[in-house]
Recover the amino acids of this structure.
């Protein structure tokens, strides 16, 4: 993608933009039901969840069964998404686009 602008554009405009808007609506519903999600943490979700899932599938060759997904949500994602950290999370600009 770094060397093929057309491939990068196709990925960013199709796959990533749909997921960003989908996740935003999921976060809005979670906050509305009282989940203690921290503002701005949905960007962390976009980076963490796919990385862990793709690593498990492609590198380890293991499946993503219900037990794994429960662990991912309860033990990894929720602590990050709800942490009252005093430090702001680093931003990389637009999700899915490399920083320069």
């Amino acid at each position: 993608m770094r060397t093929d602008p057309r491939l990068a554009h196709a990925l960013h405009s199709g796959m990533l933009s749909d997921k960003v808007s989908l996740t935003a609506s999921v976060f809005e519903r979670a906050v509305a039901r009282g989940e203690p999600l921290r503002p701005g943490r949905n960007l962390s979700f976009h980076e963490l969840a796919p990385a862990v899932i793709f690593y498990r599938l492609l590198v380890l060759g293991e499946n993503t069964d219900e037990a794994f997904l429960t662990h991912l949500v309860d033990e990894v994602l929720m602590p990050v998404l709800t942490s009252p950290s005093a430090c702001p999370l680093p931003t990389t600009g637009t999700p899915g686009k490399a920083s320069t």
The chain has one domain: 5-82. The chain has a mean pLDDT of 76.
